[in-house]
């Protein structure tokens, strides 16, 4: 009987802890432009994030990196496609360059954020300023990618498929930036 009581108590504590951690992610994601996407993408990491805003920002960057790498792979395959016309191939190639730049900025941000919780004061603010600048630039890169598709010459399935990929990346990047900005004011 004592073992059953202890087991039930342990399960109740674990359930409550998981709920509180999930609530932390949900409440933190309210500062983002895409809160549902934020909760959906970060909830699988709730046990690691716990109530740590630095971990929340790190995982937001990691899911952004994953989404960016997926878009990079998609664009790389698209540039190798035989059915693109020259204008489409050029626009996709330019977009791929922008995504590559964006990926570099996200990777730099992850490296910078990894050591930020060991510093204080001005040094902390300097590191966080770097992260903000790189993620803002990554978002600009993603928007610039779409500029190549704004003319009449490109439309249809190429434009639609690239727009979907890049919009997804931009949503993740926007959410990461919002969580980073929120971490700064905590």
TrEMBL record:
Keywords: Signal. The keyword Cytoplasm does not apply. SUPFAM superfamilies: Plant invertase/pectin methylesterase inhibitor. It comes from the Eukaryota. Gene3D superfamilies: Invertase/pectin methylesterase inhibitor family protein. The keyword Signal applies. Residues 20-179 form the Pectinesterase inhibitor domain. It holds the Pfam family PMEI. GO terms for molecular function: pectinesterase inhibitor activity. Residues 1-22 form the signal peptide. This is Pectinesterase inhibitor domain-containing protein.
